[in-house]
Structures are given as structure tokens and as C-alpha cells.
Design brief:
The protein is mostly helical. The chain has 15 helices and four strands. The protein starts with 11 loop residues before the first helix and ends with a strand.
């Protein structure tokens, strides 16, 4: 099994989709608004987290997910809230992940499932199956096969990262990972994050693309593609599905990217660049950094829009006009 090759065949349909995706990525080379507006990047990350966890039946709304990430009190199941906190930490690691490392995979799983899964950060030690209600629709490989299967998958991944196009390589990995089901829980979340990580290693534009949101929209088709690939004994159906999701996500990104840069976007970006992460500043200190003399200008054109977007928090949120009020970027 040392030379294991995941079963799939590159088809003309796949090549056409890859060509379409490459053309659209070319249109986003400068990233336009995406690169100039940090809050768009953060919103993309929030959308990705909400969608990926919603697929796994997390009950929190997009607004609640945003509030949890911004440190606000949210009423909901403690497990669901913890999953959001975990996922945000895991997605924040995207730039530092080595997607070809099993140790990194386990480390990120430990973060993704902190306080929510008993076997957090380690491969499962028991049998697992996929259920539709009370009906078992797929029996996963036995637990004693998990380590050799994952070693073979990562070995194949490393050997072929310069040979197979990353769009196809990452989709094959996604399917094979779901098939092996290496963890007792959190496999779907990890498979989606890991495909993002592989794609980010190739093109950093993927930091901005909420592919999970598109998968969530077509959740039934996502599971059908996995089931059809199980049935066919190869990942072709799933590869096609994922390429279509990436293609459609890029269509939306292009529309966003070419929106006009407004004064509000420029002001928010100036404010964020002037403030260090988690360092509270008074209004006067911020005004000095921005070269602004009017507190009303600071409030209406900078602070209020950024607070509304959840990018700036108040140290005394219950008393927004307090003389001791400070503001910080999270």
C-alpha cells in the first residue's frame, strides 16, 4: 500500500472547469477591494466558519457567529458556541498550516474540536459509520486501518503536489479524507479547512474565498457527490462538484472585487491600520494617529462604521459615551 494512488480519472469536464477557474483567478490578481478592506476578509472568514459548522448542524445564526467571534455574549448551546470559537482559531492559522503534515493536521483538529470532542487531536480508536437518521449508509474503514491509510494519503499528496493541478489534488484529498473518516468527530470541518489550506498554498486568493458558503448552499448535492463517489469507487463525481463550487465562488468574488471603493471603506481601512491588535486606545489617541481634529468626524466617519462591522470593540460596551471609553481592534 506504500504506492497507493487514490482512484480518479481526469476528464475533459474537469479540465474545462479548471480552465474557467484559472481565468477567473487571473481577473482577481490584484484582489481589488478584497485586499484593501480588512473587514471584507474578516466577513469572508465568518461566512466560511458559519457555513462549515452549519453543515454539521451547528444551530447558531450568521449574526450569532459574528457576535461570538467579536467577543459578545450569545445565548445558545455551549457546544455550538465553543465550536465557533475553535473554528475561528483554526481558520486564523491558515497561513501557518503545512497542509502536507499529518502532525499539523492533528494539531489543528485539536484546536477545531477543543472541549467538544473526547479524542481531540488524535485519530479515532474505534469503528465509525455515517448515518441518515437511524440508518447506517456508510461503514468507515476499521480503526486499525486509519494510520496506514492516512500515511498513504499524505505520502501521495506530497509526491504529487507538483504533478497534479492543485484544484484537482485538493479535491481528491477532500474526498479521500471524508472516506477514511480519521477522527471520531470533526471530519467534515477538517476536510473543508484542509482543502482551503492546500489551495492557499497555491494561490493566496483562497484566503478570501468562502467556498464553504457555496457548499452549504448546495449541501444536499455535496453529500450526494460523496455518496456517488463511494458507489463508483472513485472521486470523479466529487471532484466535479468541488470544481463547480470553486468556480461559482469566484463568480461572486469577481462581482465583489469590482465594486467601487467608497470613502467609508477607505476610512475603515485607515482606522484599522492605525490600531494594533488588542491594544485599547482612547478617542484622542486615535485622533492623533489619524491626524483628525474633530471627535464628531472620528465617531461618524471612522468608529461607528467599523463598530457596526464588528471590527472595533469598546472596552465599556454598556456605556458607549463613558469618559473612560477606549477602543480596540480584535
Amino acid at each position: 500500500m506504500n504506492d497507493y494512488i487514490p482512484p480518479f480519472k481526469i476528464t475533459n469536464e474537469m479540465l474545462k472547469l479548471v480552465s474557467n477557474i484559472m481565468e477567473k483567478i487571473g481577473k482577481l490578481d490584484n484582489y481589488s477591494n478584497l485586499d484593501k478592506t480588512p473587514y471584507l476578509r474578516k466577513q469572508t472568514k465568518i461566512n466560511s466558519i458559519h457555513s462549515s459548522l452549519a453543515i454539521e448542524n451547528n444551530s447558531l445564526s450568521l449574526g450569532q457567529v459574528k457576535d461570538v467571534i467579536n467577543g459578545k455574549i450569545v445565548i445558545g448551546k455551549q457546544k455550538d458556541i465553543q465550536e465557533i470559537k475553535n473554528a475561528y482559531k483554526a481558520y486564523e492559522m491558515l497561513k501557518d498550516i503545512n497542509p502536507y503534515s499529518i502532525e499539523d493536521l492533528k494539531k489543528v483538529h485539536g484546536i477545531m474540536t477543543f472541549l467538544t470532542v473526547k479524542q481531540s487531536g488524535e485519530f479515532r480508536k474505534g469503528p465509525e459509520g455515517v448515518f441518515d437518521g437511524d440508518k447506517c449508509i456508510f461503514i468507515c474503514p476499521p480503526e486499525e486501518m486509519v494510520n496506514p491509510l492516512m500515511n498513504n494519503l499524505f505520502s501521495w499528496l506530497r509526491k504529487n503536489k507538483e504533478i497534479i493541478h492543485p484544484l484537482i489534488l485538493s479535491s481528491v484529498f477532500h474526498y479521500e479524507f471524508v472516506f477514511i473518516h480519521p477522527f471520531s468527530d470533526g471530519n467534515g470541518r477538517m476536510a473543508r479547512l484542509w482543502q482551503n489550506s492546500l489551495l492557499y498554498q497555491w494561490k493566496d486568493i483562497f484566503e478570501y474565498l468562502p467556498i464553504e458558503s457555496k457548499i452549504h448552499k448546495y449541501q444536499e448535492e455535496y453529500y450526494n457527490a460523496i455518496a456517488e463517489s463511494h458507489k463508483n469507487g472513485n472521486s470523479n463525481c466529487f471532484i466535479n462538484f468541488m470544481l463547480k463550487m470553486i468556480d461559482e465562488t469566484l463568480d461572486e468574488a469577481i462581482e465583489t472585487s469590482f465594486l467601487p471603493i467608497t470613502n467609508e471603506l477607505i476610512n475603515i481601512n485607515r482606522l484599522l491600520e492605525a490600531m494594533e491588535l488588542n491594544t485599547p486606545l482612547t478617542a484622542s489617541e486615535i485622533m492623533a494617529k489619524l491626524g483628525i481634529k474633530s471627535k464628531e468626524t472620528l465617531r461618524s466617519q471612522y468608529l461607528d462604521p467599523a463598530i457596526k462591522q464588528g471590527l472595533i470593540n469598546l472596552t465599556i460596551p454598556d456605556k458607549p459615551t463613558s469618559k473612560n471609553q477606549k477602543y480596540y481592534r480584535n
